[in-house]
Amino acid sequence: MQLPGPGVFGPPRDRTAAIAVLRRAVELGVDHIDTAEYYGPGVANELIRTALHPYPAGLALVSKVGARRDASGGVLRYDRPAELRQGIEDNLRSLAVDHLTVVNLRIMDGAPAGQYFDDQLAAMVAAREDGLIGGIGLSNITPGHLRRALAITDIACVQNLLNLADRRSMPVLEECHARGIAFVPFFPLGSGFARGGNPVQASPAVAATAARLRCTPAQVALAWLLDLRPEVLLIPGTSSISHLEENMAVANIGLDSEARDLLG
Question: How many angstroms separate the CA atoms of 40 and 3, rounded?
Fold first, then answer.
């Protein structure tokens, strides 16, 4: 999401750097790349294809459908069953693959629930049965969405907003934990679009913990998420190799009881 231009729209400021980040990520062992056709639109997928195709064995390409961009960069709903199928096919085309590991159904604000959601799921199930996707994920959901979906089909993962400053998705994480479903927190470092400063990395508790553990505030924020539940998978976006390597080093940072108490 950080690789296209500002606002996840248009080309990157530095195309060469964006491609280098992707290649370095795979060199460091990253095996899960989160993307979407509407990042750019088309820009993120084109960069991934240019940098990594033919893709290494074991690399999970995970995308999402349910939205599109207008000419000015606005994000619009694109979530009727036929549109979801078109979104999946657009991702396959732009990534130059015939199969995606998982595709997330992104629930857009204002989308109807009930039968509309069931019809969306039916379109995702059809895509899986047709061999276009390996698993169905859900994004931006409530526990009710997850329970309703599981009555219809298996769910591979859930992708919701969760970070130290915004914990509204904790009930969804707990539901995933109880069922052994991967939980993928987006904006793990605090929204890159937040105004008035980053509420995660500006936290005094985060700063104090980072100073004591001799790491960065961003690393503390990521380590906190990994410490919550074993089902958590991180997708911290970055446009620089230095930040990528900093993020990867979080695997070697463990939070102690003092850090857990302070961070809550």
Answer: 9
CA atoms within 13 A on the CB side of 126: 13
Q: What are the C-alpha distances in Å from 218 to residues 13, 34, 83, 196, 215?
A: 23, 19, 37, 18, 8
User: What pTM value is reported for the model?
Assistant: 0.95
Determine the angle formed by the axes of helices 115-129 and 81-95, rounding to 10 degrees: 40
Catalytic choice (39, 55, 78, 116): 39
DSSP assignments along 192-224, one per residue = TT-SSS-TTTT-HHHHHHHHHHTS-HHHHHHHH
For residue 116, indicate whether it is catalytic: no
CA 26 centroid distance within chain: 17
Helix and strand tally (H, E) in the chain?
10, 8
Tens of pLDDT, residue by residue over 151-160, are 999 999 999 9
Distance of CA 6 to the CA centre of its chain: 18
